[in-house]
Design brief:
Layout: H1 3-13, E1 18-22, H2 29-44, E2 48-53, E3 71-72, H3 77-86, E4 89-93, H4 105-110, E5 115-119, E6 130-133, H5 140-150, H6 159-172, H7 183-194, H8 199-207, H9 212-223, E7 225-228, E8 233-238, H10 240-245, H11 257-261, E9 268-275, E10 280-287, H12 293-300, E11 304-305, E12 309-314, H13 318-328, H14 333-337
Parallel strand pairs: 1-2, 1-4, 2-3, 4-5, 5-6, 8-9
Antiparallel strand pairs: 7-8, 9-10, 10-12, 11-12
Helix pairs in contact: 2-5, 2-6, 5-6, 6-7, 6-8
Length: about 350
Amino acid sequence: MNVENTKNLSNLLAVPQRIVLIPHRNPDGDAIGSCLGLSGYLKALGQEVQVLAPNDFPEFLKWMPDAENVVFYESNTRRGDELIQNATLIFTLDFNALNRAGIMEQQLAKATCPMVLIDHHPEPDNYAQISYSDTRASSTCELVYLTLAALDGLHLINPGIASCLYAGIMTDTGSFKYPSTSPNTLRVAANLMEKGADHSEIHTLVYDANSPQRLQLLGKALRNLHIHSALRTAYITLSQEDLDSCNFQKGDTEGFVNYGLSIKNIVFAVIFIEHRSEGIVKISLRSRGSFDVNSLARTHFEGGGHRNAAGGKSNASLEETVTRFTALLPSLKAELLNA
């Protein structure tokens, strides 16, 4: 965060505020970790704070301190509208375009109070009065830590705050294996451990709390794995019937896409998940090297993200979506072979 933004944010936080913290739709570990971590810090300053999420988040993240007090706009719209209308300061975390807040987009666009954007995705929109956007960062949680450092607030980080921020960094870096993990990322993680984040326990809570149904769904996903060796591509499909047969719960498919990317010589992996109640197919894309899935998701699947990790959607059927995708692959051959 530059000097001007730091000064402006410090001035805002020097007086009592009614603060609302907002993650993106379908919050992941980085989104909810950054919100709850920053919430803990702001409450330590004596501020009135509420995390307002567009919708629910996975069970394996609900161990985070204060997670039980998050308000979900989808199920409590009236309360959500009141929070936005009465806010004197809004933080948007882990997204940089208001449409990423889903059903909250219109209400956020009407908000009259200042907004603060903290995010690491490319091409941010210009809606916030204070914007801390850095695509070099591993995660928004890393940027929240750096924000607290700029505000001289690291002394207020307690074990709960540290655990939330560590979890977000860990999940967005794939347990520190993704290229976005920098020396500074590891320094921040080490500092959070020194502040009380139990790295082993957090890893267990996030990754080692599988239900039998999730493992059965993983089995179906792996049976539906398709490999195009000549194009260095692998993709997985999960139909609504697949989900229903395994009593699908939010977050159950987290990380499934990475199984395709773990195959030798594969540089591009995708998972297509049918959600009939929403009328869409959700798409997660991962890559290695120079192959840009962010650009692909933006151009073809109404989505976006990072160069090596992005998401999108399709309003067509699962079969039509996959057919469209496979028809697209030959045009990407040069990029895939040179990634």
